Amino acid sequence: MSVAHCGDFRQTYREDMKVLETRFIRVSVGAFVVLLYLFPLAAGNYLTSTVTTIAIAVIGALGINIVTGFTGQISLGHGAFMGVGAFACSYYMRVAHLPFWVAMPAAGITTAAVGMVFGLPSARLKGLYLAIATLAAQFILQYLFVHMDFVTGGSNGIVSPPPEIGSFAFDGDRSKYYLTVTIAVMAVLFTTNLIRSRDGRAFIAVRDHYLSAEIMGVPLFKYRLLSFAISAFYAGIAGSLWGVYTGYLSAEQFTIAESINYLAMIIIGGLGSVLGSIFGAIFMTLLPQILTVGTGALAGIFPKIGFLIMSFKEGIFGLIVILFLIFEPDGLAHRWRLIKSYWKLFPFSY
Amino acid sequence: MERPVQLAVENISLRFGGVMALGGLGFSVRKGEIFSIIGPNGAGKTSMLNCVSGRYHPQKGSIAFDGHDITHRPPAARARLGIARTFQNIALFKGMTVLDNLLIGRHIHLKSGFLRGGFYLGPCQKEEIEHRRFVEDIVDFLEIEHIRKRTVGTLAYGLQKRVELARALALNPKLILLDEPMAGMNLEETEDMVRFILDINQERGITVILVEHDMGVVMDISDRLVVLNFGEKIGEGTPEEVQADPEVIKAYLGGEASVFLGR
Ligand SMILES: Nc1ncnc2c1ncn2[C@@H]1O[C@H](COP(=O)(O)OP(=O)(O)O)[C@@H](O)[C@H]1O
Ligand SMILES: [Mg+2]
Question: By CB atoms within 10 Å of each CB, which of A146, B83, B142, B159 scores lowest?
Answer without folding.
Answer: A146
